Amino acid sequence: MEGCLFCGIVAGDVESDVVHATERTIAFRDVDPQAPTHVLVVPRDHYASAAALAAGDPQASAELVTTAAAVAAAEGHDDYRLVFNTGAGAGQTVFHTHLHLLAGRSMTWPPG
Ligand code: AMP
User: Fold this and answer.
1) Residue 109 falls inside a structural domain
2) DSSP assignment letter at 89
3) Cα–chain center distance at 105
4) Whole-angstrom Cα distance, residue 9 to residue 110?
5) Structural domain harbouring 40
6) Does residue 108 lie within any of the structural domains?
7) Fewer CB within a 10 Å sphere, N or C end of the chain?
8) Cα(97)–Cα(6) distance, rounded to whole angstroms?
9) Mean pLDDT score, 26-51
10) Which of 14, 30, 37 to mutate to test the pocket of ligand 1 (most atoms within 8 A of CB)?
11) Domain contains 65
């Protein structure tokens, strides 16, 4: 989608540190990491939210989770947190859905 940062990363027009790629997803390191491992997993196709992706491409939706698990395992983490921020009020700033993988430190609940 025109003007979408993560579409630019998927297309290779915007530089990123890609750690894993599958047919339907790309995983790259967050530029402002909130944990020792902080990776974003995005569908190659543009969907604004996790729910829109699940409705429009259930296989890609599942692949976000399996990709995140593969990255966590590759980085040696048994314990990790997966987060979809949905809507500005919940902290979403990039409206190309993305699954945050956070690992490598202890986590508290609830998140802020
Ligand atoms: P959210 O606030 O849930 O929409 O998450 C957006 C995430 O994208 C934030 O954690 C940002 O640090 C991250 N981010 C923004 N620009 C880039 C970029 N060019 N490459 C990697 N991560 C980015």
Assistant:
1) no
2) G
3) 18
4) 31
5) 5-103
6) no
7) C
8) 9
9) 98
10) 30
11) yes
Q: How many CA atoms lie within 13 A of 32 on its CB side?
A: 1
Antiparallel, parallel or unpaired: β 18-21 and 81-83: unpaired
Whether the full predicted model's pTM is greater than 0.90, yes or no, is yes
Quote the CA–CA distance of 6 and 2 in Å, as a whole number.
Answer: 10
pLDDT, tens digit, for every residue of 56-111? 999 999 999 999 999 999 999 999 999 999 999 999 999 999 999 999 999 999 99
Determine the distance separating the centroid of ligand 1 and the alpha carbon of 5, expressed in angstroms: 9
Tokens representing 51 are 């729910």
pLDDT band at 9 (very low <50, low <70, confident <90, very high): very high
H helix intervals, the chain: 5-11, 50-56, 58-74
Q: What count of other Cβ atoms lies within 10 Å of the Cβ of residue 50? A: 19
For residue 75, being part of any structural domain is answered with yes
CATH number of the domain residue 35 falls in: 3.30.428.10
Of 20, 38, 46, 98, which residue is the catalytic one? 98
CB 100 within 8 A of CB 83: yes
